[in-house]
Every structure is written in structure tokens, then in C-alpha cells.
């Protein structure tokens, strides 16, 4: 089981508490689709993804970004059982959505970058390390039902 | 050969022309050592790397961070021939320093986060894509002479 120190728990709560999920979700997903264009293959029904402006202005991308960040809330509120919390989502992504699990890491990276742009100096190395640990645990949990 | 759009060239020149090499280099290398602690194995003679505060305050880390960032300058000034520009550095990192090339990506990620935190909203998705492409080309060039 993943161990979280008190400092890590407070750091995560502090970061999460300052995030506007409705803003950050769309930005993170938008960046994934722009910076790693092959990920667009999963969103064939989303309409115009032909360039950065179209992606960032696309309402389906925005909505889906909010859905994803909303789901991340479950991990933040269940730090001691992220794997159990995401068991069903993991199965969904594998068996129904057929998402290559490498893409979870790409989204985690883009989310970390969005946080860095918003927090600036308030995202020091220790906080970054804690945040990336959370991302790694979430990615592992989402991948856990693949095999 | 790597093709660069006008936007990508302008973006890279712009980011580096405004960069505080000493501060950004220090910050990026320190983050690498904090977030990916196994990288400390390459810096056995740097003294105290015991915790985040020690790493951030370590003058050898600061100095070496600046060296690495200034090394990136060569790529910035020779974007059309990054591979040849880094041929010797690649041999050095492989045969003398024995650095696992995965670590180039880790340092690139930390550098991206530092630049993101400094530029804030100016680090748009398009700018992120250009910057990550640049660092990927650099990483690839540094890995070129390994085999």
C-alpha cells in the first residue's frame, strides 16, 4: 500500500484546494491533444480538433476535461485506497475505451505543467515531488486492471 | 533532419533570450535531484544532497545547473544541426560519465516545469509543444552516440 506522510497529505490538499477544476481540466486535456496529437484518435466524435485554437475552444474537450478532473477528486479524497477507488475506471479504460495506458502519464504530465503555470514559485521542488507521486499512483491504479 | 516552423524557431529564441540561466538551471537540476532521487548517484562529490532544502542550497548543484543550461545554448544557436552540435557531449555522457539516457528526459521535464512556472499564462499549449519538441531533439542528439 502507498504510504503518505503528513507533509505529503497537506501538500496535496493545499494544491487541490487552490485548483479551479473547471478551468484546469479543460486546459490539461487541451494540452494533451495539442502536444501529443496522436491522442486525438480517442476523441473522434469531438468535432473540430484541427489546430490549437480549435481544440482550446472546443466545448466537448472542455466538458471532458472537467469530467476527468472531477474523477481525480476521488483519488484526492481516498489517498489510502486509490487502487480500489479506480478499479472500475481502470476496467472501463481498458476493455471499453481501449486507451493505451501510456496516455495516462501524458495527461498527468500536462496537468502538472498547468499547475506549474498557475502556481509559479508556489510549486517548489518538494511540492512537485509530492504531486508527481500522486500522479504516478493514479496512473498505476488506472493501469492496474489492464492485465 | 528536424524541421522547425517559424513559430517554433521564434518561440525557442524568445524563451532563451529572456531566461535567467543561473536561476533556471539551478532550479531545474535541483528539482531533478529532489523528484527523481536516483539521479543523485551521478553527483557523489557534490556534498550534502540529503533533503530538498540541502539540495536547493547546495552551491555545486547551482553551479552545475548553470553549466547544463548554458550547454543548451549551443542547440538554441544551431537548431538546424543539433545532432552534430552535441556529438562530443553525447560521447562524453556515454563513455565517460555513464549517464543513463532516460535521465535526459527527466531533466527536460523538470526544465519544462520551471519554465512553465516562470512564464505562467505565457506558456501556452503551442509554446509547450515547441519547447518539448526542442528538448526531445536535444535528448535524442545526446543519446545518438550511445550505441
- Beta strand % of chain A: under 5%
Largest sheet of chain A: none
Gyration radius of chain B, rounded: 15 Å
How many domains of chain B? 1
Helix content of chain B: over 70%
Structural class of chain B: mainly alpha
Helix-strand category of chain A? mainly alpha
Q: Identify the quaternary structure here.
A: heterodimer
Rounded to the nearest angstrom, the distance between the terminal CA atoms of chain B is 20 Å
Largest sheet of chain B: none
Give the number of helices of chain B: 8
Shape of chain B: globular
Q: How far from one another are the termini of chain A?
A: 19 Å
- In N-to-C order, the SSE pattern of chain A is HHHHHHHH
Query: What is the mean predicted local confidence, pLDDT of chain B?
Result: 95
Describe this structure in words.
- The complex is a heterodimer of chains A (147) and B (147).
- Chain A is mainly alpha-helical and 147 residues long.
- In chain A, 71% of the residues lie in helices and 0% in strands.
- In chain A, helix 1 packs across helix 8, helix 2 (21-35) crosses helix 4 and helix 7 (102-119) packs antiparallel against helix 8 (125-143).
- With 147 residues, chain B is mainly α.
- Chain B has one domain: Globins (Globin-like, Orthogonal Bundle), CATH 1.10.490.
- Chain B is 70% helix and 0% strand.
- Chain B contains eight helices and no strands.
- The model of chain B has no long low-confidence stretch (mean pLDDT 95).
- Chains A and B meet through helix 2, helix 3, helix 7 and helix 8 of A and helix 2, helix 3, helix 7 and helix 8 of B.
Amino acid at each position: 500500500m502507498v504510504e503518505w506522510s503528513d507533509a505529503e497529505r497537506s501538500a496535496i490538499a493545499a494544491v487541490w484546494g487552490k485548483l479551479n477544476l473547471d478551468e484546469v481540466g479543460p486546459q490539461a486535456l487541451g494540452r494533451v491533444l495539442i502536444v501529443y496529437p496522436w491522442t486525438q484518435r480517442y476523441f473522434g466524435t469531438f468535432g473540430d480538433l484541427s489546430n490549437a485554437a480549435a481544440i482550446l475552444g472546443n466545448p466537448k474537450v472542455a466538458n471532458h476535461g472537467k469530467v476527468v478532473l472531477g474523477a481525480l477528486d476521488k483519488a484526492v479524497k481516498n489517498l489510502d485506497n486509490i487502487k480500489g477507488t479506480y478499479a472500475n475506471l481502470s476496467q472501463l479504460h481498458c476493455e471499453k475505451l481501449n486507451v493505451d495506458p501510456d496516455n495516462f502519464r501524458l495527461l498527468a504530465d500536462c496537468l502538472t505543467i498547468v499547475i506549474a503555470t498557475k502556481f509559479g514559485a508556489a510549486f517548489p521542488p518538494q511540492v512537485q515531488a509530492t504531486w508527481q507521486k500522486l500522479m504516478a499512483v493514479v496512473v498505476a491504479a488506472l493501469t492496474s486492471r489492464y492485465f | 533532419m528536424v524541421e522547425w516552423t517559424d513559430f517554433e524557431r521564434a518561440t525557442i529564441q524568445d524563451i532563451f533570450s529572456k531566461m535567467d540561466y543561473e536561476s533556471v538551471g539551478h532550479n531545474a537540476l535541483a528539482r531533478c535531484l529532489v523528484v527523481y532521487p536516483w539521479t543523485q548517484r551521478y553527483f557523489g562529490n557534490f556534498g550534502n544532497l540529503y533533503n530538498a532544502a540541502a539540495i536547493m542550497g547546495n552551491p555545486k548543484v547551482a553551479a552545475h545547473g548553470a553549466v547544463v543550461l548554458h550547454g543548451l545554448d549551443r542547440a538554441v544557436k544551431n537548431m538546424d544541426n543539433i545532432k552534430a552540435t552535441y556529438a562530443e557531449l553525447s560521447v562524453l555522457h556515454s563513455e565517460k560519465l555513464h549517464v543513463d539516457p532516460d535521465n535526459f528526459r527527466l531533466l527536460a521535464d523538470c526544465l519544462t516545469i520551471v519554465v512553465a512556472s516562470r512564464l505562467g499564462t505565457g506558456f501556452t499549449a503551442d509554446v509547450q509543444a515547441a519547447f518539448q519538441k526542442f528538448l526531445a531533439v536535444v535528448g535524442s542528439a545526446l543519446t545518438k552516440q550511445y550505441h
